[in-house]
Amino acid sequence: MNSQQLQCFIHVAERLNFSKAAESLYLSVPTVTHHIKSLEEELGTQLFYRSSRVVKLTANGETFYHTAKDILYRMDEAKKLFHDHQIQKTKLFRIGCMTTIELKILEAVIKKMKEQFPFVRPRLIVDDFFSLKNLYENGQLELVICTTGLSKKDHFKKIITHQSYAVVPLSHPLANQKSVTFQQLAQYTLITLPPRCIPFEKGNKLQEYLTLYKQDHDHIVSESEQEGLLLAKCGYGIALFPGFLIPDDDHSVIKIPIAGTENIEYGFFYSNQEDHIQYFIQEYLQHYHD
User: Fold this and answer.
1) How do beta strands 164-169 and 238-242 pair?
2) pTM for this structure?
């Protein structure tokens, strides 16, 4: 006995018409007839009198109608009970990141996390630093992958310390340099990101240099790291990015360390140490450094 057999029986019993019952269930008449016949065989009794003119419930059919309704009701209640229980167990894990570069690692990490924590539902927010900072400080993100700059009253786990680089195509005159100075960079158009995408801490020498450079030089402010790298590849200028914004598998560009610049810490800010967050961080670090 299954729910579809019971549904077919109840629909026919209430309509006393196989065609109308089939239409209401979006089934064919032969399918409904088959389910009724199978149910009668399983119960060992006839549930309907059927003729070319009329369909009527037998005495046993009338008795079973109330039983069938009760069985379906209890089945629906059981499904609702476990469905509601699963919803209550589901935990939202909101993750913020500054760039789509992280998505490659996140795919592998989240896939493994799903196996260990099936009731944790991740949500990814890719946005600029200050938007993520606002969401995090208002309790709308549990973890942010970004540079330092959020309040360290919460937990911070460093992923890597990166230099700032000048990114140029393979054919660029500076491509063979081991490092570049501010004076060398001053000869070229520079491509940078707005502060909302890559904030600098107070006293950062690269930021101080760029502030002076922009007063007297043509420069390009790109809206994303993808746009900046594309423009650099196409010869519009030199992109100045921290290392975590430069894909390791992009062999069409050279990244040259900028002399005299401070390193930038890049890592996780997180508000609590729940098991799934700790697992996420461990897996991310493993995939990042592999």
Assistant:
1) antiparallel
2) 0.61
